[in-house]
Amino acid sequence: MTTTYELMKPQISSVDVPEDLALTWENINLYAINVKNSLFKKKIVTRTKLLRKVSGIAKAGKLCAIMGPSGSGKTTLLTAIGQRNSGDIRREILLNGRPVTKDMMMKMSCFVPQKDLAIKSLTVMEHLRFMANLKMDQRTSQNTKKETIEMLLEEFNLSYCRWSRLSELSGGEMKRVSLAVPMLSDPPLLLCDEPTTGLDSFSAAQIVDLLRVFTAKGKLVIASVHQPASGIFEMFDTVCLLAPGGSQVFFGNVDEAKLHFSKLGFVLPPAYNTAEYLLSKLSTESQSLSRKFTDSESHKALLNDIE
Hints:
The protein is α/β, with parallel strands linked by helices. The chain has a single domain (about 20-115, about 185-305), classed as P-loop containing nucleotide triphosphate hydrolases (Rossmann fold), CATH 3.40.50.300. Helices cover about 35% and strands about 25% of the residues. Strands 6-7-8-3-9-10 form a six-stranded mixed β-sheet, with helices on both faces. The chain has a four-stranded antiparallel β-sheet with strand order 2-1-4-5, sandwiched between helices. β7, α7 and β8 form a beta-alpha-beta unit. α6 packs parallel to α7 (about 200-215). It is globular, with a radius of gyration of 20 Å. It is found in: Membrane. It is a multi-pass membrane protein. Belongs to the ABC transporter superfamily. ABCG family. Eye pigment precursor importer (TC 3.A.1.204) subfamily. InterPro entries: AAA+_ATPase (IPR003593), ABC_transporter-like_ATP-bd (IPR003439), ABCG_dom (IPR043926), ABCG_transporters (IPR050352), P-loop_NTPase (IPR027417). Keywords: ATP-binding, Membrane, Nucleotide-binding, Transmembrane, Transmembrane helix, Transport.
């Protein structure tokens, strides 16, 4: 029996997926700098390490997830890759083997925050028109802007609520609006911070499917994901797993992740949420898992892929 979700599910074609774009990050270390001033003493500067030698690669046509329990640095890593954070950071980020400057990254990428930033009294149409004037080239004609908005309303299944105020939308509808906005400028790189958080499993699956549509168009898409619903984990192509404290415990495709952890003795119980099971292990055995990943074949394969 065909479900409503299957009828609404975007159709993905693998024919038009370019495979020549690759963004790599290697040995990212990030420290938060805390400065305390005192009237009678010298200012005290402390450093807290948030990310510890994290590496990975995102390719066009492949949907990449950053996962980990609370306090693992998912959003921190996402903003570090997008060069949008402060602090003492040491990183090497390359696009097709060439260094990416902060200015270049800001121009080529769009960051979608977890919390939707919008004037809630506007309708969906008014919001998209407003954002089109901000994001699209000033030389773009009004007709082209109108056509682009109409195309996005159709693609994101928002036509039926175009005149609804943002304050009246459901969580899933509002998230689709948030994802439609960056598509106005059609960036090659999309960074999404916890796009499925707070959504039911149906809405979360819709959002991840939209991200897969972006990758099918040749875009690089990286998303941080917190506590994914059952089945969401398997919808991603590659996954970067972080443990509390910002240490990396895995990078590779989803099937390799299951195999890697099964070799370490963590066998997924029947009918159990894969991501939920793995994240529970990351919270209790982070240090040993990080060392074992460094010594694993998966880590060697990652370094070879980056090179």
